[in-house]
Specification:
This protein has seven helices and 14 strands. By secondary structure, the protein is α/β, with parallel strands linked by helices. Bound molecules: guanosine-5'-triphosphate and magnesium ion (MG).
Length: 387
């Protein structure tokens, strides 16, 4: 995956800014020897923020970004001077990005629309200066509040494509052929397994100017959940789809068996995928005649609607679009941005899983290979209470 432009997984070490400390200054001026406390407050530290940007399609621009450090708040000064606020760091990501804590696997947030901002790490508040602590009985407080410390976290950003229909099938099932037949996308098509190595999106136009997005993902094989083939890494791209289109070639040994294997692999990946609507497409129907089609029809799985299609001859494609649309349009699948994100349940990941995925991608070098202390500057370490 090293040369690929499709980057859907990055790990970034984030740190928010710490708050500046308040000043404990006591005023001493000419002719004002005991001027009292006049220490100002410290500034707030900057936050680390994720922001949706629809002009990005992948996380490629973040591939070599190892850390995101927000600015520290400035310290308060004499004469009630406030410290400056630290600058925020805004990480721009494509819509469809989900953030996890890499150490615990905990789900943090989900960016689904353009301009949406989510705070990953809040900057520390600045400390109060001694001016706030003056009382009639303690007129010269020689202390002030320190600022709140910075927060650090290793964050994993995962892109989950926002598509309505996800294609699920073994390699060579004709997924890319279908996508190229009904959309303007031009994925690579060839007669060998794993032609498609990274997901492709296509916009399928339907009647009356309506359209929906279809995602072609690399083929799945039996044992994918144990890491065979390209593994299940790409399955996260169909986690958001409201509809899964299973594709099994007409010339396969047993359509029912292939369908069940695919379903089994998906279940092992994420149980929630079973709640999605499913449609079964029997592909490459130009290879069989009508009689054979009737015979096949008898032994198809009953719990899922099916359509016979051929991406090459165009047979059944209009019917397929009709079926897909009516399913997408039905109440249970209405995609409304507001509750879309609630409906998707992002499972928490285990740290182990995240590590394995990174290893599978041969991407260990983009990991956490420096000590955060290295970045502590000398100035930072003297943030003790000022007397
Ligand atoms: N006869 C016939 N051949 C087809 C049809 N659809 C696809 N093929 C052929 O099947 C082979 C595989 O097609 P692809 O579209 O690359 O299959 P895929 O599912 O995308 O495969 P991977 O990307 O490897 O997972 C190609 O040689 C296609 O020409 C069809 O409807 N009829
Ligand atoms: Mg393909």
């Amino acid at each position: 995956m090293a040369e690929s432009n499709f980057v859907d997984y990055v790990k970034i070490f984030c740190r928010s800014g710490k708050g500046g400390r308040g000043s404990a200054h006591l005023r001493h001026d000419k002719y004002i020897p005991n001027g009292g406390p006049d220490g100002g407050d410290g500034g707030h530290g900057g936050s680390v923020i994720l922001k949706g940007n629809r002009n990005y399609w992948t996380l490629l621009h973040l591939r070599y970004q190892r850390h995101a450090f927000a600015g520290n708040g400035g310290n308060g000064g004499s004469n009630k001077c406030f410290g400056g606020d630290g600058s925020d760091v805004i990480i721009e990501v494509p819509c469809g990005t989900v953030a996890y804590n890499a150490e615990t696997g905990e789900y943090l947030c989900d960016i689904t629309h353009d301009g949406q901002q989510e705070v990953l790490l809040q900057g520390g508040r600045g400390g109060l200066g001694n001016w706030h602590f003056r009382t009639p009985t303690r007129q010269a407080p020689r202390f002030a509040q320190p600022g709140e410390p910075a927060q650090e976290m290793m964050v994993v950003l995962e892109l989950k494509l926002l598509a309505d229909v996800g294609l699920v099938g073994f390699p060579n099932a004709g997924k890319s052929t279908l996508l190229s037949a009904i959309s303007a996308a031009r994925p690579k098509i060839a007669n060998y397994p794993f032609t498609t190595l990274e997901p492709n999106l296509g916009i399928v136009s339907y009647r009356d100017g309506k359209s929906f997005v279809m995602a072609d993902i690399p083929g799945i094989i039996e044992g994918a959940s144990e890491g065979r083939g390209l593994g299940l890494r790409f399955l996260r791209h169909i986690e958001r789809n409201s509809l899964l289109l299973f594709m099994v070639p007409a010339d396969s040994e047993s359509i029912r068996h292939e369908y069940e294997v695919l379903l089994g692999e998906l279940t092992r990946f994420n149980q929630e995928l079973l709640d999605k609507s499913r449609i079964l497409a029997i592909t490459k129907c130009d290879l069989i005649d009508e009689e054979l089609q009737k015979m096949l029809e008898v032994e198809l799985p009953e719990d899922v609607p099916h359509v016979f299609i051929s991406g090459v001859s165009g047979f059944g494609l209009q019917l397929l679009k009709d079926v897909l649309w009516s399913e997408l349009d039905s109440e249970s699948n209405k995609i409304e941005a507001d509750w879309l994100s609630e409906r998707i349940v992002h499972r928490a990941r285990t740290a182990e899983e995240i590590r394995n995925e990174f290893q599978a991608m041969g991407d260990d070098d983009i990991g956490y290979d420096f000590s955060p202390e290295e970045y502590e500057s000398a100035e930072d370490s003297e943030m003790e209470l000022e007397e």
